[in-house]
Amino acid sequence: MNQFTLKFQATELDIRRCSNAGQVFRWQEIGNNEFLGIDGGDWYHIFIIPGCDEDTFEVTTSADECRFHSLFRLELSYPELGRQLTELGPELIPYLSFGQGLRMMRPNCATETLFSFLCTANNHLARIKPMVQKLGSFGSKVHRVKEHPIHEFPNIATIARLKESQLRELGFGYRAKSIPLVAQELESRGAETYLEGLRNETYELAFSELISIKSIGPKLADCIALFALDLTEATPLDTHMWNVVTQLYFPEWKSLNLTDQRYRTASSFMRNRFGKLSGFAHQFLFFHDLSI
DNA sequence: TAGGGACCTGCC
DNA sequence: GCAGGTCCCT
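^ Those are the sequences you sent over. The predicted structure of the assembly is below.
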């Protein structure tokens, strides 16, 4: 167990925004300015003490400070990122200023990210979070913070052996079937070694690998590539992004459905415009539409 | 190849 | 009804 203290301006890191932006699903505010977050087998218990210039973050964690830095990409200067994005696309300016303090997280556990996003399809946040929490409860309990038990996220082999009936009873709906099936498919490809190995591949290869798994379509594949595999040119297009993207770049597609062809055209357009920063552009656009 | 319907569940 | 989609079938 490690403890350390960091200082940030509110515009540098806003944990509340990071927790609620739909990038991680086992993060919650358990008290006033007190957060508990779980990433695979790591947990983070964070107190934020507001200051006049900077806020003080007191972090207690099973991981180390280095992991915390990686999780929130603290090596990345957001003012500099903002400048680069603005240069590539001035239309982002209002979205950047709206999303101050929101950072693209980089969870350590790719398995948790993959199965979390499997729960998001045709679903809403109020149901997604409890579902991911329940999936997490199949992992072993490693700690407790106040009344909150902390389970490490189950490994792929464990998920592959879950029974559909069991998950149905827990309210997973039709995902009760696909969750173990996806785990079995991953297992046959080499389980965690295969999934984490995709981090070293190109975006294009990782994307094509992921969509070849039944139940993972282009949107989930892009979320997994972006958040779990650190392939930041991935640009997930969901209904929120579709609103924004058609408004900003494809007005002729306003009121049209997002088909597979349009998905490929629009997300390629974003990648051509923003390159490796496209995933970051996506997050600011998405967060704005999510919040209005 | 593009478009429409079905799919679990819970909150608006 | 509809939600941060995907599959399956015309």
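Residues 122-124, 126-127, 168, 171-176, 257, 259-261 of chain A lie near DNA strand B (CB under 10 Å from a C1'). The two ends of chain A are 39 Å apart (CA to CA).

Shout if you want it in another format.
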